[in-house]
Amino acid sequence: MNHLKLYTYFRSSASYRVRAALNLKKLEYECAAINLKTGEHLLPDFSDMSHFSELPILEHNGQQIAQSMAIIKYLDEEFPETYQLFPKHTYDRAITLQMCEVVNSGIHPIQNLKIGKKLKKDHGFSNEDVFAWSRHWIDFGFQNLEKLLKKFHGKFCFGNEITAADLFLVPQIYNARRFDVDMDKFTILTKIEHNCLQRDEIRLASPGYQQDTPNELKEKV
Question: Which pTM value belongs to this model?
């Protein structure tokens, strides 16, 4: 018997990636909402579990795994009969992983919540300054990603099947819009986002549909 439990926050883009992966794989899971805004991730019970006080964490039959990339690769390997998010061939898999890492390593860590708090606390950044910082680095990363995708994309990031790369891209575009990035100049990225959001598995993993989404931000199913 598999019991999957995901510790998540509605607006966490890393959690969004894993929710979409679980949906695509049609794996049932329990959600445990952890509020990043109120600091629930810093409380002893959760920080002891995560070690880094970060989301998401997947618990599978009592064993915990942190970091969205590790979780998604674990799900692919642990449930090989389900939808596979990394291509079979070595080169294709490496390119897909490269696309993921443009977001996972090159964009997301520079613009996340803890960086914004640090900039405000130690460097006197205003909210507007933090937005400008985040907007700059997302825009810079998206320029590089658009060039990479030009070589490999079809309907989705790598050809015409959804891969892990799409699950990293779509939540990052959600963040980009929050920070007022001009998405009109990224025609490939926005086309892929549109195609992905036609799939309920990805759309319903987005922040507007979660159990901990505030009522004023909830979207209709």
Answer: 0.92
Q: Which fold has domain 90-203?
A: Glutathione S-transferase Yfyf (Class Pi); Chain A, domain 2 (1.20.1050)
Task: Give the count of alpha carbons within 13 A of 153, CB side only.
Answer: 22
Show the tokens assigned to 77. Answer: 């390997």
Tens of pLDDT, residue by residue over 129-152, are 999 999 999 999 999 999 999 999
Please name the fold of domain 4-84: Glutaredoxin (3.40.30)
Q: Show me where the domains of the chain are located.
A: 4-84, 90-203
Average pLDDT rounded to a whole number, residues 33-37: 81
Please list the residues that pair with 57 across neighbouring strands: 7, 66
Distance in angstroms between the alpha carbons of the first and the last residue of the chain: 30
Longest CA pairwise span in the chain (Å):
51
